[in-house]
Recover the amino acids of this structure.
C-alpha cells in the first residue's frame, strides 16, 4: 500500500470538512477522489501533501508514517488546478526547480529536464514563459515539474478543471497513457464523474467529508451502495413507491418490486434502463404519455408523464425511436429493466433486474 | 477583457470634443501650468545661477541630510513592509484586522500631527525623551527623530503595494515549491520575492519620493537648525521665509524632478516586465483572464 | 475547499516574523498614537474643550473643513471627467496627461505650494491679472482650495479610472438597444456603477485635505482668523509650546479624518 489514510478528520469552525476518512491505495494505481464541491476531497489531498494539518488521524506514505512530516520531506508531486507555474521562470526553469533544490549536478538536471520535456511533448517550448503557453501546455508543464524529482506519490487537485472541454478530454487520455508508462502511484481529485471513470483504476466517492463507496468505476456504477452514489454517478429517475404501487397494473403481470410494505423508500431508475413499448406486451409495464421527444444525434431523449403526474425521462437509440414511430402526445408503456430501491429507515437496498 | 475603445477622433461628437477640451484646460491650469511656472522661475536667472545656487553649502548639506534620512527610511520600511505584507496576507491570527487598520493610520494623520506625536512621546519634556537624551541618544531635534517621522509617514506604502499582489497570486506557487522540497527561505527567495519584486520596487519608490518631500512632520520634529537638521524641504521653507525665492525655486525643481522622474522611470520598466509575465499578446489561451496587478496608489 | 493555507499552524519562523513586524508597527505607529491619547486624557476634557472653542482654534478648524469640502465638491466633478476622458477617448497627448496625473503624488507638498505661487502669485502675470479683477488667489482662502485641488487631483481620477476601464460595455449597449440616449445611459447605467469609486476617492481626498500642510503653508499666508487652517494652527501652537492646544485641535482633525475615511469605505462597500 503506497498511501494509507486512517481516521482522518478536519474541522473548520463549524464545518466538518473531513469526517473520519480511511482508505488505502496500492502501489502503481491511479485512483480518483470523486465528489461534489465541499465534499472534502481537496482537503484530503492537501492533508496527504502536508499542506493542511488534520485534526486527527494518520497518513502513511510508502510504508512510512508521514503524519508529522513536513511537506518538503514527503517525496510527493503536486499538481494544482490553476497550474501554479512560476510565472517568472521559463518552462525549463520550472521543471528544473525541484531538481535544483536537491542540488543535483547540472548535467544530470539538464538530462532529466530534457527527458521530461520530451515526455510531455514540450521540448520546443522550453524557453517560453508560462503566459506564452496555452492552458493544456501549462498543465503539462505542471505535470513535468511534479514528476521531475521522481516523487513516490503524485497528487493531482482537479488538474483539468480550468481547461476547456476538448483540451480536457485529450489531456485525460494522455494522463492515462503517461501513468501506464510511469506507474507512479497517483491520487486524482475531481468532481467530474466521467473524468474519474475514464482515467482511474479505482474511485473513492466522497460526500460531506465521508466516504460513500470505493471500488472500480464500473462496479460503483452498477452496484451503487447509497442513494447519493446512484444520483451522483450519471442521470437517474427518482420515483416514489406509491407512484408504482398505486398504478393500475394488470393483475396477471404484477410488477415484482421487492418493496417491503413501508413507503419510506425511494426507487431509482436510470434513463437507459427503461424501455418503451407501443403496446402492453408479456412483461409488466406502466402506461405513460410522451410529453416531448428530443433527438440527440444517435440517441433520443423521451420525456414521459406517468398517470400520477410524475415525470420520467428515458434514453433510447434514435433507431429504436424511429422503429417504434414515437411522437409526442402518444400513449405508450414503459418498463424498467433494472431498478434500485433504497429504504431511508432501514437503509436496506434492493435491486431488481429484468433480463430481456 | 478590456471593452473596445469607443469613439476615436473621427466620429467624435461636439459635446465629446468639448469635454476633452475642458478636461485638458483644467489639467493644464491646475497641474501643468504650475509645474512649468516653477521650472521657468528656477531657470529665469540662467542655468549658471541655477547650479551656483545648488552648490551653496547650505543647499548641499540639506540635500545630504535628506539623502541620509531617505536611505534609512527606505531600507527600514521596505524590509518591514515586505514582512508586514506577508504577515497580513499569509497568516491568520487574532488582531489581524486591527493590524490592517493601524497600518492605514498614517494616511489619515496630518504630517504636522505626526510630528506632534513624536514630540509628545520623545520630546525633551517627556519621560522617555529625557531618559534617552541623558543616555546620549536625543531623538527630537536630532537625526533619529527625523528618521522616525519619515518612518511613520511612509509606513503603509510598501505594504499596500505588496499585499494586493500577494493576495492576487495566492499561495499555490509557494505550496508547489514546498512539495518540490524547497524550505521556507528558498521559497521566499526564489518564488515569493520575484513575484512581488515590482510591488516592492514601486512601494520603495513611493517611499523615496515621499521621504524626499516630507515637510510637515520634519518641520515640527527637527527644530530646523541650519546645517544640522535642515533637510531639502526645510531649506525651501527657510528660503521662502527669508525672501530668497530663487533658492526655493531651485531646490523645489530639483526635488520635484527627482521624485517624479523616478516614478516615471519605474512605471516604464515595470510595464515592460509586466507584459512578459502577466499578459503577453502572444498568450494563446483566451480563456485565461488577463489580469493586470496594480499596486494600489495612495499617499 | 478554499485555499486555507493560513489554517496551518505557523512555523517558528513565521511567528518570529509576525512578532517582529507587530513590534515594528507598535514602535513606529501605535506608541506615538497612544502617547497622544494618554497625554490628552491627562489634560482632561475640560481643558481640551476650552482649547477647541478658543476663537482662533475654532476658526482654523472651520476653515479646514470648509475648504476641504469645497475642494471635494469640485474634485469629484473634474476628477470623474478626467477619468472618463482618459478611459473612453483617444486624443493626442493622452499618454502624457495620463502619466502627469500622478504628479501631485510625487511632488513634495511644499514644492506644490511654490509651483502655485510661481503661476498665480502676485509677481506673475496671471496673478496680476487675477488681482486686477479683484480675485487674488495666493494668500487668500481661494488659494487654499487651489492648493488642495492640486494635491488631491489624482485621488478621484485614479479610483474611478480603473472601474471605468473594466466596466462591461454590454450594460451600456443593452440600454442603448432599449432606446436610451447618451445622457440617460450615463445617468442611469454608468454613473451608478461609478458611485462607489467616486465616494472612496472623495473620502481619501477629504481626509488628505484636512491634514494638508506643506502647500498651504506657502500659499495661504498664515493669517490668524483668515487663512490659518487647522494644521497651521497646530504647528503654531507647537512652536509656541502650547502642546495642549495643538493636541486638542489635532484630535479634532484626526477624528474628522478617520470618520471620513471609514464612512467613505462603508458607503462604497454598500453601493458596490
Amino acid at each position: 500500500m503506497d498511501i494509507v489514510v486512517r481516521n482522518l478528520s478536519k474541522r473548520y469552525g463549524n464545518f466538518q470538512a473531513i469526517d473520519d476518512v480511511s482508505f488505502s491505495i496500492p502501489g502503481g494505481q491511479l485512483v480518483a477522489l470523486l465528489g461534489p464541491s465541499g465534499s472534502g476531497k481537496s482537503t484530503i489531498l492537501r492533508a496527504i501533501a502536508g499542506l493542511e494539518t488534520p485534526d486527527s488521524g494518520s497518513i502513511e506514505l510508502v510504508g512510512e508514517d508521514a503524519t508529522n512530516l513536513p511537506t518538503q520531506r514527503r517525496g510527493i508531486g503536486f499538481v494544482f488546478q490553476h497550474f501554479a507555474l512560476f510565472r517568472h521562470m521559463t518552462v525549463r526553469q520550472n521543471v528544473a526547480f525541484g531538481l535544483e533544490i536537491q542540488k543535483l549536478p547540472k548535467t544530470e538536471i539538464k538530462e532529466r529536464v530534457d527527458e521530461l520535456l520530451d515526455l510531455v511533448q514540450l521540448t520546443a517550448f522550453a524557453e517560453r514563459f508560462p503566459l506564452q503557453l496555452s492552458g493544456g501546455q501549462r498543465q503539462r508543464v505542471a505535470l513535468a515539474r511534479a514528476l521531475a524529482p521522481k516523487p513516490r506519490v503524485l497528487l493531482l487537485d482537479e488538474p483539468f478543471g480550468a481547461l476547456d472541454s476538448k483540451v480536457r478530454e485529450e489531456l485525460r487520455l494522455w494522463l492515462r497513457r503517461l501513468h501506464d508508462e510511469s506507474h507512479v502511484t497517483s491520487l486524482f481529485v475531481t468532481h467530474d464523474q466521467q473524468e474519474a471513470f475514464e482515467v482511474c483504476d479505482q474511485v473513492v466517492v466522497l460526500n460531506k467529508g465521508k466516504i460513500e463507496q470505493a471500488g472500480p468505476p464500473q462496479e460503483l456504477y452498477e452496484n451503487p451502495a447509497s442513494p447519493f452514489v446512484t444520483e451522483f454517478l450519471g442521470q437517474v429517475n427518482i420515483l416514489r413507491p406509491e407512484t408504482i404501487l398505486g398504478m393500475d397494473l394488470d393483475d396477471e403481470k404484477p410488477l415484482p418490486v421487492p418493496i417491503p410494505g413501508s413507503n419510506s423508500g425511494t426507487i431509482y431508475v436510470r434513463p437507459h434502463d427503461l424501455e418503451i413499448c407501443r403496446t402492453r406486451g408479456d412483461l409488466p409495464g406502466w402506461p405513460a404519455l410522451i410529453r416531448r421527444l428530443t433527438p440527440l444525434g444517435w440517441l433520443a431523449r423521451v420525456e414521459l408523464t406517468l398517470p400520477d403526474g410524475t415525470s420520467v425521462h428515458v434514453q433510447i437509440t434514435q433507431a429504436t425511436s424511429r422503429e417504434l414511430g414515437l411522437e409526442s402526445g402518444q400513449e405508450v408503456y414503459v418498463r424498467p429493466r433494472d431498478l434500485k430501491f433504497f429504504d431511508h429507515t432501514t437503509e436496506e437496498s434492493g435491486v431488481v433486474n429484468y433480463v430481456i | 477583457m478590456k471593452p473596445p475603445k469607443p469613439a476615436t477622433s473621427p466620429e467624435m461628437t461636439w459635446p465629446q470634443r468639448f469635454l476633452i477640451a475642458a478636461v485638458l484646460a483644467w489639467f493644464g491650469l491646475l497641474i501643468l501650468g504650475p509645474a512649468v511656472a516653477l521650472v521657468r522661475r528656477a531657470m529665469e536667472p540662467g542655468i549658471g545661477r541655477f547650479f551656483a545656487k545648488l552648490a551653496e553649502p547650505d543647499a548641499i548639506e540639506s540635500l545630504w541630510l535628506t539623502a541620509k534620512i531617505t536611505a534609512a527610511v527606505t531600507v527600514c520600511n521596505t524590509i518591514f513592509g515586505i514582512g508586514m505584507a506577508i504577515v497580513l496576507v499569509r497568516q491568520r491570527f487574532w488582531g489581524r484586522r486591527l493590524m490592517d487598520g493601524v497600518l492605514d493610520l498614517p494616511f489619515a494623520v496630518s504630517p504636522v500631527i505626526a510630528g506632534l506625536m513624536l514630540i509628545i512621546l520623545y520630546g525633551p519634556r517627556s519621560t522617555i525623551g529625557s531618559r534617552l537624551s541623558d543616555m546620549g541618544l536625543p531623538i527630537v531635534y536630532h537625526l533619529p527623530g527625523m528618521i522616525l517621522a519619515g518612518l511613520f509617514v511612509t509606513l503603509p506604502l510598501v505594504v499596500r503595494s505588496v499585499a494586493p499582489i500577494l493576495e492576487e497570486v495566492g499561495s499555490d506557487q509557494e505550496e508547489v515549491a514546498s512539495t518540490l522540497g524547497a524550505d521556507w527561505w528558498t521559497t521566499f527567495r526564489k518564488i515569493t520575492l520575484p513575484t512581488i519584486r515590482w510591488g516592492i520596487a514601486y512601494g520603495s519608490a513611493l517611499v523615496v519620493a515621499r521621504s524626499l518631500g516630507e515637510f510637515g512632520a520634519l518641520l515640527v520634529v527637527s527644530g530646523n537648525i541650519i546645517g544640522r537638521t535642515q533637510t531639502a524641504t526645510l531649506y525651501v521653507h527657510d528660503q521662502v521665509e527669508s525672501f530668497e525665492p530663487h533658492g526655493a525655486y531651485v531646490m523645489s525643481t530639483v526635488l520635484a524632478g527627482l521624485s517624479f522622474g523616478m516614478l516615471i522611470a519605474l512605471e516604464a520598466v515595470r510595464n515592460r516586465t509586466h507584459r512578459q509575465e502577466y499578459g503577453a499578446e502572444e498568450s494563446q489561451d483566451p480563456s485565461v483572464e488577463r489580469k493586470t496587478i496594480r499596486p494600489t496608489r495612495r499617499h | 475547499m478554499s485555499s486555507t493555507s493560513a489554517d496551518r499552524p505557523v512555523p517558528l519562523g513565521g511567528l518570529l516574523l509576525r512578532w517582529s513586524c507587530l513590534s515594528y508597527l507598535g514602535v513606529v505607529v501605535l506608541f506615538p498614537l497612544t502617547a497622544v491619547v494618554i497625554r490628552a486624557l491627562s489634560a482632561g476634557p475640560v481643558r481640551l474643550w476650552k482649547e477647541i472653542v478658543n476663537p482662533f482654534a475654532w476658526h482654523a478648524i472651520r476653515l479646514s473643513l470648509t475648504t476641504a469640502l469645497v475642494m471635494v465638491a469640485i474634485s469629484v466633478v473634474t476628477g470623474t471627467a478626467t477619468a472618463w476622458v482618459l478611459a473612453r477617448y483617444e486624443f493626442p497627448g493622452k499618454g502624457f496627461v495620463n502619466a502627469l496625473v500622478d504628479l501631485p503624488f510625487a511632488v513634495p507638498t511644499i514644492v506644490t505650494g511654490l509651483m502655485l505661487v510661481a503661476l498665480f502669485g502676485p509677481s506673475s502675470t496671471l496673478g496680476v491679472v487675477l488681482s486686477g479683477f479683484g480675485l487674488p488667489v495666493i494668500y487668500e482662502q481661494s488659494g487654499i482650495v487651489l492648493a488642495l485641488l492640486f494635491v488631491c487631483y489624482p485621488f478621484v481620477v485614479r479610483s474611478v479610472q480603473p472601474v471605468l476601464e473594466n466596466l462591461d460595455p454590454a450594460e451600456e449597449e443593452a440600454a442603448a438597444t432599449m432606446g436610451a440616449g447618451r445622457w440617460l445611459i450615463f445617468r442611469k447605467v454608468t454613473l451608478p456603477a461609478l458611485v462607489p469609486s467616486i465616494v472612496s476617492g472623495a473620502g481619501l481626498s477629504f481626509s488628505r485635505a484636512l491634514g494638508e500642510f506643506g502647500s498651504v503653508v506657502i500659499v495661504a499666508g498664515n493669517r490668524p482668523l483668515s487663512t490659518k487652517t487647522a494644521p497651521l494652527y497646530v504647528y503654531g501652537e507647537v512652536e509656541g509650546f502650547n502642546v495642549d492646544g495643538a493636541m486638542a485641535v489635532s484630535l479634532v482633525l484626526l477624528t474628522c479624518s478617520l470618520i471620513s475615511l471609514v464612512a467613505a469605505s462603508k458607503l462604497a462597500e454598500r453601493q458596490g
